Amino acid sequence: MAHQAAILARPAGEARRMADCIRALAIDAVEAAKSGHPGMPMGMADAATALFDGFVKFDAADPRWPDRDRFVLSAGHGSMLLYALLHLTGHAGMGVEQLKQFRQLHSPAAGHPEFGEHPGIETTTGPLGQGLATAVGMAMAERLLAARFGKSLVDHRTWVIASDGDLQEGISHEAASLAGHLALAKLTVLWDDNSISIDGDTALSFTDDTLKRFSAYGWSTRRVDGHDPTAVAAALAWAQRSRRPTLIACRTIIGFSAPSKAGTAGSHGAPLGAAEAEGAKSALGWNHGPFEIPEGLRERWEAVGRRGAGTRRSWLKRLANHPQREEFERAIAGKLPEGWHLPLAALRAQHAEQKPKIATRIASQKALEALVPAIAEMVGGSADLTGSNNTNVKGVASVTPGNFAGRYIHYGVREHGMAAAMNGMALHGGIIPYSGTFLVFSDYMRPAIRLAALMRQRVIHVLTHDSIGLGEDGPTHQPVEHLASFRAMPNVFVFRPGDAMETAECWELAIKRADGPSLLALSRQNLPALRSDAGENRCARGGYVLEEASGPRRATLIATGSELHLAVAARVTLEAEGIGTAVVSLPCWELFALQDASYREDVLGSGLRVGVEALIGFGWDRWLGPEGVFIGMAGFGASAPAEALFKHFGITVEAVVAAVKKRVE
Ligand SMILES: Cc1ncc(C[n+]2csc(CCOP(=O)(O)OP(=O)(O)O)c2C)c(N)n1
Ligand SMILES: [Mg+2]
After folding, report:
1. Which residues have C-beta under 5 Å from ligand 2, the single-atom ion?
2. What distance in Å separates the CA atoms of residue 107 and residue 648, rounded to the nearest whole number?
3. pTM for the full predicted model
4. 306-345 burial, b for 16+ CB within 10 Å, e for fewer?
5. Average pLDDT over all residues of the chain
6. pLDDT tens, 319-332?
């Protein structure tokens, strides 16, 4: 490659040598693992070196320092770039032993960066586009916390390295558009503009004018030679001065220095092979053993790792004397403020007394009215359905481009970007993000919810219009399979409360749950109050006997959400006919599954079990057993008033009664 030859012909200054450390480690680790992606780290090594050497504010001695800059490797397949940086800058827990274990079981240097595997890994990446959108949330969190605690405690930047694939993904459009709208000036994306993806030249599928695209979103953009450290540094300095988010297109050669694979998809996702690896090192003039970093360069890199130490110490002093110190530390630690639950307890007492007949989405708004004023770190929002999701609270101001003092975000119709940004806010720390859309559009958020589950982040999604009960909007808007699919997703808590009281209880559980995402499936339609006790949070066990049989129990009706009252009504008829019937509410399967077996057996009973839920029955056999009966949906819904639909699909009190009588008589 002539271009590569020209670059290699330049006298190799210190910056090139430092970057070569990254290249050599990436080559060696991928060779040792016999799998991985050497091309991206080899191509972006120069730009990453310029970024870390001169710009990223961090201190390797404390990778969780709250006011550090956030660095997100959105192109997670290039994970060795991140691991090499953590290693070279002297982070504990990423020694040469760990690099030698790249991609092996229990190594922090996993195939793709995994949040939690090493404190220097800010977020899990690998699903392209997610990292960039998560970083947008981190940059939003920085602004929100700066507005709350001031610049002396919160003043950091968010840096992203993104690849062609990151920018091709739809989520990058949502995220970049939102970032541009909000003028997130402290967000900078370095685009690895190498014109190569897996199928070959990106020209096969990608002819966007990316710089124009980003400038249309309200970003400032620049193009540089990604192998020229001086040019990259100048662009980074320019980015720091920008009043808008910045995109720096770094023209690079994937697999830089590999004699035959550089500039080709061949270097993207497979070891170079011994000969090509040798050739790459000799082209660089790198004559050290595998995983070996010469002393001078190691010292130089470790100095980079210590560069922020003084800044961190000054920050610690400022924190020590700051009037909001305790509040800041509490919020960052994810601890709830003292007494946070008192207004909610008062609301539950009120529900017990007044027994309001309201939709659970309205009940959710009432819960938010109790929670949001009490918990300053709750930041709400909706994907343009605020009035339908009932996610805002009177008196809470909206965030606007110049003003992050508000706590409500108009995400626009960008569900995927919203969910990923929420992950970024939760990961950043100091914020408990919640938001809303229709349950059916959770499909548009699924990849981000999956990452929240994988990373065990506290994000809360208010998902309203949760069944055919939404009525006339019809089957495009009526979820059927959604809860089954989220119940199948590890670490997700799916709540489907049946009345106002249960809604308050489920909100309490979602807020308390610091180690994973919670979804609240809520009705559009009004539902009668079924509970008049406000003491114990009965949803906390996931399922409980709402009404016991008056005599020996012959049947148990198990329902969730808007079908709970059908079960209660059916019980009245069955009891009147002498069939001892209990009603079990099962608002959270995941919590119920955590209870001991004897509790579960007591609740579910040994008689006939009938499940009632206006959704697909997939998964219900887990509770109903082989002899059970399920009353719900078997396919898509239809457009009609809700009452007509429940009748049409046979989800009625009469159907429940008939199902029981058929079996027990
Ligand atoms: C959502 C998603 N789809 C597909 C993939 C599989 N994949 C990994 S990298 C990649 C594209 C590689 O091209 P680019 O993003 O330009 O990275 P480069 O090869 O330049 O490092 C694909 C399709 C993925 N990781 N995530
Ligand atoms: Mg590429």
Report:
1. 163-164, 194, 196-197
2. 55
3. 0.98
4. ebbeeebeebeeebeebeeeebbebbbebebeeebbebbb
5. 98
6. 999 999 999 999 99
